[in-house]
Amino acid sequence: MPFINLLRQYQRHKADIDHAIHAVLDHGQYIHGPEVKMLEEQLQQFLGVKHAIGCANGTDALVLALKALHLQPNDVVFVPSLTFVATAEAVVLCGGIPFFVDIDPYTYNLDPNSLKAAVQMAKQQSLPIAGVIAVDLFGLAADYTAIQAVAKENHLWVMADSAQGFGATHNGRLVGSCQDCTIATTSFFPAKPLGCYGDGGAVFTNDDEMADLIRSIRVHGQGQEKYDNIRIGQNSRLDTIQAAILIEKLKIFPEEVTLRNQIAKRYTEAFRNRYKVPIHPSKDTCVWAQYTLQTTDRSTRDQAMKAFADRGFPTGIYYPKPLHLQTGYQHFPHTSNVSVCERMTQTVFSLPMSPYLTEKEVEEICS
Ligand SMILES: Cc1ncc(COP(=O)(O)O)c(C=O)c1O
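Above: inputs. Below: predicted complex with pyridoxal-5'-phosphate.
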């Protein structure tokens, strides 16, 4: 059993996906063809956001968003220490300084109290603070209400790194609708809840100026004309074939999220007496990029993973090392207490999660 079975989705929807790919091959507009615009419009409609701007991947989406926010050299951006490295990497790529913050032990998302402590620390050191990137880890929306309260008090912008959380809601509002943040990003990496069959990403915002800037930066700082370069940009276009695939996948996305939730519910019933299962605020929804269990200590975690592996079920650790302890990032500042992140790296493991797991497979994993 693969950890995430992408082939099954393709086999189930092969006719539609093949047709969409061939339509691109037939019209030949491989770069920024009509499917890109069509997908952007559909994403806008799905999320209820003014601008959806496709780009090459989720890391670039973060970089483009930071550039649109005019991040200045050495500006401090608060990020959770338990996330995929791209969240902090994008800050460094834009000349900023990631300041690592602890997470909540139940939701695995950025802890607003730890954010408060980090802001105080940065202020005491007279660091120029700019914003915070909240991550919708494992597909659960971060606590944007509490994060916004800290941000407003300290004049910080809030960005949502929703690479794992496309479709998740906070207080009934889709994260990508940008009602609780200035700008949001996502990744269409194949294993993500809304994934394509290669690399892809998108930025979402209701701000016209930022949207114009991102549309220009993603094509080499283009102005009104093709060879008119009005600023320094980069090449970060969403591939037309990937956009065509995403149009097909967006159609089946709501049904896939329902199936993921059903599997998560079954896992929780089966494992709640043995491990710490995910506990989510009732006001928020999750798209289950990962279903993660927690043990009491590392050796119990390792034994559990071995037991699953011995029976042919793959598991994964997201993530084995927090960012503030990574060689490339340990020189950046962090709050005095990042102990939850450190503990989680020793005790968490994730189960196979895919809308295309059969009932029989889920029952086998549970038993
Ligand atoms: C939280 C988070 N942010 C950013 C990224 C980067 O996305 P991509 O791999 O498309 O560059 C990922 C995905 O890998 C992610 O999980």
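The domain at 6-249 is CATH 3.40.640.10 (Aspartate Aminotransferase; domain 2).
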